[in-house]
Amino acid sequence: MIQFDKVTKRYPGSDEILKNISFNINAGEFVFLTGQSGAGKSTLLKLIAATERPTSGTVLIANQNVSQLKPSAIPFLRRRFGLIFQDHKLLYDRNCFENVILPLHINGITGQEAAKRVRAALDKVGLLHKEKAMPITLSGGEQQRLAIARAVVSRPSILLADEPTGNLDASYAADIMAIFYAFNQVGVTVIMSTHDALGMSATQNRVLHINQGTLSEPSLGTTNFNQESSAIERFTS
Ligand SMILES: Nc1ncnc2c1ncn2[C@@H]1O[C@H](COP(=O)(O)OP(=O)(O)OP(=O)(O)O)[C@@H](O)[C@H]1O
């Protein structure tokens, strides 16, 4: 479903952020993307979402070469994706219902059908009772759940989440992870970047690790992975 073939990414004036990276992600997988700050995790997610283009190499999404898509085709590609960021990107002058309905309105879905879908999405993340609340009145974990509702309301087949638990304490983070696992259980492909290499050592999910521009799939518990984990632990404790 997602194929990178010898992908290199350099921003104007930058060194190579990603170097000759190849991997495949199949429909329905749950993949963690790890690496230190600045390693290129967000860059890789942006290449998948076609908000950035590779400098060289090929990115195929559902067999479509992203670099060869006409600009008019990009919005259709993006409908496959639900995007979730660490900083939510919520609209603070609109209530929860209005935040979640926005992607539907952009896609021309309005009226009762839109309202039904918004309430279903809010329900999935446990926020149906907050539909009229303004985002600023929600806790950090609730705001992140609202961002997830907005990302899934268009029923994307792929969720790209960029450190969605980064600002949250452990219990909120566990709630958010449970929501992502629930979506994955019903067939949604989930690709999630995280600093939390420690947490990942407990997971059975596939891990793609970026280090100095190259990609590896560490077998969990390998020396490098643990060294980096303890560095993160020292930094955050
Ligand atoms: N638009 C841009 N122009 C130039 N350089 C950029 C741009 N976006 C990112 N970079 C650089 O690319 C590198 C990788 O950034 P990226 O945001 O992908 O890393 P990351 O692994 O997601 O980091 P973090 O965990 O801190 O969010 C960094 O050195 C960053 O400064």
UniProtKB/TrEMBL annotation:
Q: Is Lyase among this UniProt entry's keywords?
A: no
Q: Which SUPFAM superfamilies match?
A: P-loop containing nucleoside triphosphate hydrolases
Q: Name one GO cellular component term.
A: plasma membrane
GO BP terms in the entry: amino acid transport; cell division
Q: Where in the cell is it found?
A: Cell inner membrane; Cell membrane
Stored Pfam families: ABC_tran (PF00005)
Task: Please give the InterPro entries that the UniProt record associates with this protein.
Answer: AAA+_ATPase, ABC_transporter-like_ATP-bd, ABC_transporter-like_CS, ABC_transpr_LolD-like, Cell_div_FtsE, P-loop_NTPase, Sigma_54_int_dom_ATP-bd_1
NCBIfam families in the cross-refs = FtsE (TIGR02673)
Subunit details: Homodimer. Forms a membrane-associated complex with FtsX.
The family annotation for this protein states: Belongs to the ABC transporter superfamily.
- Its biological function? Part of the ABC transporter FtsEX involved in cellular division. Important for assembly or stability of the septal ring.
Q: What is this protein called?
A: Cell division ATP-binding protein FtsE
Q: Which gene encodes it?
A: ftsE
